[in-house]
Amino acid sequence: MELSPEAQALAPILIAVVVLWVTEALPLAVTALLGAVACVVAGVAPAKEVFRPFADPLIFLFIGSFILAEGIKRHGLDRRLAYGVLSVPWVDERPRRILAAVAFVSVLISAFISNTCTAAMMLAIVAGILGTVETAASTSGQRPHAGFATSLFLCVAFAASIGGLATPIGTPPNLIGLAFIRDQAGVAVSFLGWCAIGIPLVVVMATVAVRVLAWLFPAGVERLVGVSAYVAVERARLGPWTMGQYSTAAAFAITVVLWVLPGMLLVALGADHPLCRWLAQRLPEGVAALIGAILLFLLPGDRAVATGLRQRALSWRETRIDWDIVLLYGGGMALGELCFSTGLAAALGQSITTLIPAGDWSGTVLVVVAAVVAVVTSEFTSNTASANMVVPVVIALARATGNEPLPAALAATFAASLGFMMPVSTPCNALVYGSGRVPLRAMMASGAVIDVAGTLVVTAAMLIAGRVWTAP
How many CA atoms lie within 13 A of 282 on its CB side? Predict the structure, then answer.
């Protein structure tokens, strides 16, 4: 297939960006901006076309979600949830149940808040629990095996990464994949539609992770003395709910309702109902996220200690938006769209098919390959960069082989977040490894098992989802 002049100019830029992403010679966001600038200078497309993805509606879903997450962290709702779950009587100081409770909390929080922030918060809680257990063991004589601490720390990292798959906003690769699927595969996946796939997948994977960690790193004791007392003390320190917490919870609840309501009405009333069409046009996910975020600046918060005056639930000075992710998303989407508009993606897909001796890729084989490549790539580069690199190639390959692109693109999107083996695979892994309580060999051994299990689970889930989605 003969390449257009624009595609010929884009190819070396794309290769250079991929190399810089993998090696991290420059910050990922800087590399994304460099790629976009290079495309304009090289004449691949006009500046207006190249920079258009930086204002994609999903960008504002990112921004709104970041602001909501900041409000939740600032008012301690995540910590209140964590101690609330750990104080459930069922947990009862039993090692496996504590491990399961830590996984549950990490999964639930990371479904809506940054995986990295979730891991950092849960690490502090787990460290406090282990410190209490080790102190109590000096008098009771029931000291757990050293591997149990490893299992708890690894559980935080793995569960935080897994939980990000439950919702579209759980982790940036989700939104990156959804944008490629919407723009290049022509399928709009709603918030509720994603959750219908993501939540069951997360439940299965979190269960697998807990069982693998409990098997590889057993506690060796029946009870961990002191955990219940520690959690009770920490929960009591949180005190009663504050006005800021009520306001933040209300803003978040309204946002979730606005995210889920269009999908629920679509199922109940059908796509042709006027209300469903109105909601689809007037209330996309990005707008819903911004409504919730703006509410934080309007609703009342706590009183200032110095003045005693009532503040808002959130102020702009307290707001932290991860602009690295926003810019990386915009630059990655710009390169991805240019790959398709210049014909480079189609040529790449056809070139890959010529490397296959049999020349016959079924949809199942394509889904498996997409999942495996995304997992392997995410072990050596960020999951966001992995999604930017793998998803558009998979869509192009599906088209070149005459397959439906949705299952393979979803497989690559989900699998891009499954790097569990190395400290560099995800920030969650890096945080846990930096604690000094997790040997590299332990992370690699358990991560390899969960990588394989995750690849199988993602493949099966995407094949089922593909059949349901395309069913008449």
Answer: 7
